[in-house]
Amino acid sequence: MSGERLIYMPLGGAGEIGMNAYVYGYGPPDRERLLVVDLGVTFGDMDGTPGIDLILPDVAWLEARRDRIEGIVVTHAHEDHVGALGLVWDRLRAPIYARKFTAAIARLKLDERGGAPESALRVVEAWPEVLELGPFRVGFVPISHSIPESAGLVIDTPQGRIVHSGDFKTDPDPVIGEPFVPAVWEEIAKGGVRALVCDSTNVFSPNPGRSEASLVDNIEALLREAKGMVVATTFASNVARLQTLANAAMAAGRSVCLLGRAMRRMVETAIDTGLLTQFPKVVSPEDASQVPRENLLLLVTGSQGERRAASAQLASQGYMGLSLKEGDTFLFSARTIPGNERPVARIMNQLSEKGVDVIDDAGGRYHVSGHANRPDLERFHDLVKPQFLIPMHGEHRHLREHMKLGEAKGLKGIVATNGMMIDLSGNAPKVAEYVETGRTYLDGGVLIGAMDGVIRDRMRMALNGHVVVTLIVDEKDEPLGEPWCEIMGLPHKGRGNSDLVEVLEAELSQFIGRAEKRTLRDDERLEKEMIRIVRQASQAEIGKKPEVTVVVSRLA
Amino acid sequence: MSGERLIYMPLGGAGEIGMNAYVYGYGPPDRERLLVVDLGVTFGDMDGTPGIDLILPDVAWLEARRDRIEGIVVTHAHEDHVGALGLVWDRLRAPIYARKFTAAIARLKLDERGGAPESALRVVEAWPEVLELGPFRVGFVPISHSIPESAGLVIDTPQGRIVHSGDFKTDPDPVIGEPFVPAVWEEIAKGGVRALVCDSTNVFSPNPGRSEASLVDNIEALLREAKGMVVATTFASNVARLQTLANAAMAAGRSVCLLGRAMRRMVETAIDTGLLTQFPKVVSPEDASQVPRENLLLLVTGSQGERRAASAQLASQGYMGLSLKEGDTFLFSARTIPGNERPVARIMNQLSEKGVDVIDDAGGRYHVSGHANRPDLERFHDLVKPQFLIPMHGEHRHLREHMKLGEAKGLKGIVATNGMMIDLSGNAPKVAEYVETGRTYLDGGVLIGAMDGVIRDRMRMALNGHVVVTLIVDEKDEPLGEPWCEIMGLPHKGRGNSDLVEVLEAELSQFIGRAEKRTLRDDERLEKEMIRIVRQASQAEIGKKPEVTVVVSRLA
Fold first, then answer.
1. Domain Metallo-beta-lactamase spans what residues (chains A, B) (predicted)?
2. Counted domains in chain B
3. Is the complex ipTM higher than 0.85?
4. B474, B494: one domain
5. Same domain for A14 and A131
6. Residue A359 contacts B where some CB pair is shorter than 8 Å
7. pTM of this structure
8. Which of B348, B266, B337 has the alpha carbon at shortest distance from B102?
């Protein structure tokens, strides 16, 4: 076995929260057989990626080694774990393994984007069943999270056992789905665990996590006491929360109506796969408008303020014939993900203008997190007793804090971020290699590299505006007419109330009038000079330097 | 007195947190004499206002009535109350009144942007001194906040007394500056208060606010126990916090070094105006690099993650010869303003990568808010006992919640947002008029209207990219050569790996080749058609519709 090694490498999800993609390998260096865990996405934002729909890990490294991939295993059906499958499967072409509900969601993702044949996606049974994938034996251990059928992975290799926690919390009573069972993990740990690769999301939350079941009474009371219509928004994938909300609605004599495609699809999938057996019959939006307001609960998408989702639309004009008014109640039964505060606040203010009472998760009464808090992580470390701790699923500060937490209890480990290939074979984990990784953007229907310059140009136009200069030069290299300017995203009037375009054109004309023949002959030089002139004149006139595109047309 | 009325109208700050600008008026309708309270700014962001440096209230309404303005009074020196003075003074040309320190900061603002003559800015003494301004008698009552010399205003009019709270908290021990003194407000309330116009910022904070003094021990302990260099960031204007940090540094045997222009300027101004008398002698950045790390405290700008501020630079390469390393400590002694989470997290992660320990205000140990919390507001209502409560300084949800809080105790009032002119003369406040208001953007060196379309165009280019099409048409209305495309902020390759520019040019050439003479003669039609073709072809090729600029050059 000497000469073989066990490696771990995150391609996404380590150094960020989102787009999870982890790789394990076993074999001789550079010939390891590979196991991919999760292929997720993250979302773009105006701040750094305007116009980008989804962001996914760059899988070039995997693609170049796709003959070595034994399989892609998916821990659970959240977008940040499953969302990139459809976008990259064609480049990897390895079989995908997941539990039933997760596989059903993965199938939707595959069909939505590019896709993979039916045979590529294989449903697996939970632990103690195991899957043989080359040198790996993989078990899917039920673990609680904010989506059903979440799995921690037990990965047995010739160099020992790895526990890959997946996203998890230590909930003994998750309402829907499987609880966290300490005895199972104790059993798993018995023969020794070489490495625990572990969720770090909530390492800064000091108190033990609360159970989903702790919300039931609060939500029921809210729905009983509310006078008008109640609207509740949460992640569609939080099937347990949907059940809790629906139970409370039934108890309070309210009919349930689902709004938003993701919401309807998730409930259907959960019913089809046998997870939701107690969900009430829902009313359609059309029928809902006939139901008295005090007998209605709308379950809607858009808890993060997404502009086109049902929440945003209800907060402005209305949605599918339903609209809100004074006396109604709107419940955010979800946490606002950092960065989404502004769009969420926009919705809250619009609701406030309508006289709708907004209730958020500020008091923790209507929402609990799906991730293990700091004491829960310590408890999990204690159960699994790994030789090495490797924090994952976190920004750098989460990973580092998680490592410090482990070290305080005597655990060895390493902070491994995207692209760091870690050799787990020795007495301590060590960096074997730094692999070039990055992000791929889905822009409309096209995948582009994060460093292609496309987004850089968009941001520059957004910050600085865009000036287009056109100039025609005739066969004798003489300018034909004057240079012409068009501006986009720039003030029309400058400081002295002069017209910006006129000022720019005057400056350019002056330059062209004086330009020597050799300049007029030289496209590159013409362009460079005209860009300089436009930027300089703009700086003087409006105090900023725009992006400039110069088009020189030569008559032949 | 019949036929005269007392009015209140926010032009900014009511329906948002930022760019405060309030107007009071007294006199016959449409001939009221006017009093302006505060002229502040808010900050742009990539999300909604890319490239915009500052946002200020549209003062067109005031400008059209500037002969009726008795004065501009400034409650305190925060940017959101004083920042627009320099940008709009020239349009209003009314005298500005402020207390000494506030006036010193206002003078800097005036000099920085446009400016006003020395004589325009007048220093006033605090209550019980009062200022006679037409029908108004205005008193500046010291009140505690997160900046020294903050004032609540007592505005006496022929129709009674108004209390304009300004930004405030009920701190009995603010370290630097004046405490909140209940007896003063009781005295002010004695003769009856017609209206309390009141800060709403922290209405959702359920517990009584804590005193600045409560931080002293925590901060001192932190500075004593830290091993390496300590960096602390807070708002430069939080002079009390700077003093607390400096005191702790002295106690811990650390020299203080100020980094960032705003930080140095604020400390200088506070010393010059006699507010800071105990501040230690600071070391220059050059000398600081000679001081042992464990004997140094850097006080730095950039607590909100501002890209060019000292915090951001220290987190990446370093700043003025100083850089951070493993074992150093970085303290965020400030709240992250909603919307700034992402840039702040970016800095925290960069620091984490360097091995720097980051301490934020999560536990409330190193920061207290400058605004009155919910119970403090109730206490203030009880002291002032107004006939009407009018919430200000808040988003709509804050104003509404504040009004509900007052109503629960039997107060009458109204939620008044920007542009709502409220008549305070009768038995209940009522809307007299809706005035058109808006936002003005400072873009580079030019002021533009929020609705001018400039920012809309920038956002569109950022989301969709920009295609520039040029076409030359000769004297006989025949196309000269082919249409030419340039793209900016768009993928170069389409779905089928074809070149986007080539595809667009081929489509355009085909159209031009077939175009009838009357189309070629008609600029408008040519433009419209070519835009349609580019957008349609782009949608097919890359799945998105770009912005398009068409330049048709006609040889005459």
1. 18-219
2. 3
3. yes
4. yes
5. yes
6. no
7. 0.95
8. B266
